[in-house]
């Protein structure tokens, strides 16, 4: 049963990767909180913290800023309130250490505290991190965490999942079950999703709407920043930002039929380039895919002039698709390749557009299914471990595919669609399982091998 909050799916935090920055930051913060419960004797003996990274966290962690995010979490920083400029300054000096307070004890953490392990680790998830507290070389305590995409984390040994203890008035695990609730209740999709959200989050209708408005505004702030900022993105690729140039081009061609697509591309690139620069973005459903939904919602607000209530309802429709993928497959690039990130975002965007245009659940399902279907098998192969090539342009392409999926689903009878959303999500999961790990965030194959040409 899906009991994830909309506000767990859409998170505000620093880029460039929710799996590599937001998730590890949250895990490190949790680790420090747990250390405060140790006995005085253990705390007295403690003198070091060691962080062991496995899977994609090891292979591309430096490019994604995983080490900086972990230091920030150990220092008590939280994703939504993190200053991205301060975050990017961490670990710049190889000789500098940072004071991590554990009770009354100060433990220094620096570059030497990190171990980017290249060995295979027996773990149920691709992105694994093990944090250890030691004293005189002896292990005092350790915790193992898994970053499972979109900033979601799991701690090894947790036997109870708080989300599974929640109850909702309209429980569903599949699109067919969601559609059955709509048919039986006679309620609009937004009302069903709002009822579940209020039950899960404990927020009132007013509070849910206010938070949705805040999320949309945070997305649009990222777009506006990206449209202003010029120059080169951080990292060894030296990739120059394109969004401001595209935006000016779109404005100069406002009477051209192409301007619509150029505007959409500019908006998506703007948010995605902000993410690549480590700026504050909204996971939608991940940071790597944080240009698709922001670009589409910015277009919907400023070109289609949809009302606030329409945008909110569209966000809920998008969230429902994200929930279904997360629950029945995965939104993690380390598990599904890029189809888990951009593919899901494109499906969510297609659902958003279709709902905002006033179409029903059958058309929404068809649009989302088309969005995923045409991303099946897409690899996650970032050059140099940076969320830049091909990630930034893939956000724009994902949004364009979302728009086309909306057009295809709304131009005919949804009943003519032969493949259901539930079926394509099953295919997506199987495809991710069969895909070589080299094509899932490790930068060991695909376009990542073109690094020498950059």
TrEMBL record:
Keywords: 4Fe-4S, Gluconeogenesis, Iron, Iron-sulfur, Lyase, Metal-binding. Residues 5-156 form the Serine dehydratase beta chain domain. It comes from the Bacteria. Pfam families: SDH_alpha, SDH_beta. Pathway: Carbohydrate biosynthesis; gluconeogenesis. Coiled coil: none annotated. Its cofactor is [4Fe-4S] cluster. Residues 185-448 form the Serine dehydratase-like alpha subunit domain. Its EC number is 4.3.1.17. It catalyses: L-serine = pyruvate + NH4(+). GO terms for molecular function: L-serine ammonia-lyase activity. The keyword DNA damage does not apply. PANTHER family: L-SERINE DEHYDRATASE, L-SERINE DEHYDRATASE 1. Belongs to the iron-sulfur dependent L-serine dehydratase family. This is L-serine dehydratase.
């Amino acid at each position: 049963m899906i009991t994830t909050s909309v506000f767990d799916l859409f998170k505000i935090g620093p880029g460039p990767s929710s799996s590599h920055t937001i998730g590890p930051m949250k895990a490190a913060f949790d680790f420090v909180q747990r250390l405060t419960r140790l006995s005085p004797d253990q705390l007295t003996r403690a003198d070091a913290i060691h962080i062991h990274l496995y899977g994609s966290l090891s292979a591309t962690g430096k490019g994604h800023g995983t080490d900086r995010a972990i230091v920030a979490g150990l220092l008590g920083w939280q994703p939504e309130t993190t200053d991205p400029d301060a975050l990017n300054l961490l670990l710049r000096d190889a000789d500098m250490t940072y004071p991590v307070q554990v009770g009354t004890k100060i433990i220094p953490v620096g570059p030497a505290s990190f171990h980017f392990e290249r060995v295979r680790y027996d773990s149920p998830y691709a992105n694994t991190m093990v944090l250890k507290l030691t004293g005189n070389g002896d292990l005092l305590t350790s915790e193992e965490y898994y970053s499972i995409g979109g900033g979601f984390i799991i701690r090894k040994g947790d036997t109870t999942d708080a989300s599974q203890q929640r109850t909702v008035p309209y429980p569903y695990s599949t699109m067919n079950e969601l559609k059955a609730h709509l048919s039986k209740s006679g309620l609009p999709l937004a009302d069903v999703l709002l009822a579940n959200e209020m039950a899960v989050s404990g927020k009132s209708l007013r509070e849910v709407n206010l938070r949705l408005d805040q999320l949309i505004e945070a997305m649009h702030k990222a777009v506006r920043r990206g449209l202003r900022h010029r120059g080169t993105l951080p990292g060894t690729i030296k990739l120059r930002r394109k969004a401001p140039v595209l935006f000016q081009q779109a404005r100069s061609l406002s009477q051209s039929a192409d301007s619509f697509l150029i505007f959409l591309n500019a908006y998506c690139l703007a948010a995605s380039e902000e993410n690549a620069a480590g700026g504050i973005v909204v996971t939608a459903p991940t940071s790597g895919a944080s240009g698709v939904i922001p670009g589409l919602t910015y277009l919907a607000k400023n070109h289609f002039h949809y009302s606030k209530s329409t945008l909110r309802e569209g966000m809920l429709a998008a969230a429902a698709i994200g929930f279904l993928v997360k629950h029945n497959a995965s939104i993690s690039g380390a598990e599904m390749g890029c189809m888990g990130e951009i593919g899901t975002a494109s499906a969510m965007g297609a659902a958003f557009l279709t709902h905002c245009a006033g179409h029903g659940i059958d058309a929404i399902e068809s649009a989302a299914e088309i969005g995923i279907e045409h991303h099946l098998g897409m690899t996650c192969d970032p050059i140099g471990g940076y969320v830049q090539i091909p990630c930034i342009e893939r956000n724009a392409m994902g949004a364009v595919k979302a728009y086309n999926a909306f057009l295809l689903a709304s131009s005919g009878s949804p009943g003519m669609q032969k493949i259901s959303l539930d079926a394509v999500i099953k295919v997506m999961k199987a495809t991710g399982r069969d895909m070589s790990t080299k094509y899932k965030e490790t930068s060991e194959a695909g376009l990542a091998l073109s690094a020498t040409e950059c």
